[in-house]
Amino acid sequence: MTEEKGLKKPVKLKSELAQMLGETELPRTEITKRLWDYIKENKLQTKTENGKPENAGKFIVADATLLPIFRNTKSTSKSGKLTDLTSMKEGQTVNMMQMAAIVGANIEA
User: Domains along the chain?
Assistant: First the structure.
């Protein structure tokens, strides 16, 4: 059996994400897929920043389950943009483009 590499290689999840997904290790691709499944099942997308959930759009509304995961995020992208969600409140939104930073912040380095 060959060892998976890159995005398919299993990574260790931080406790909040592990609790939500019921797994301690998953590949990044699977983490992202499962987060999106949860977001879609719970209709947590909205077209406007901090808008009400309407099941469509590029913003993701933080519910009680996603909030602790989003709050783990404080990272700087290669372009120097800071994503700091540590003081986020339930009902606030993140841009779907921040999902990579959120996933990255919720795995053990």
Answer: 9-105 (1.10.245.10)
Task: Please give the angle made by the CA atoms of 16, 21 and 26, to the nearest 5 degrees.
Answer: 100
Q: What's the pTM value of the predicted model, to 2 decimals? A: 0.89
- SS3 assignment for the chain: CCCCCHHHCEEEECHHHHHHHCCCEEEHHHHHHHHHHHHHHCCCEECCCCCCCCCCCCEEECCCCCHHHHHCCEEECCCCCEEECCCCCCCCEEEHHHHHHHHHHCECC
Residue 17 has pLDDT above 80, yes or no: yes
The sign of the dihedral angle between the CA atoms of 90, 106, 41, 6 is positive
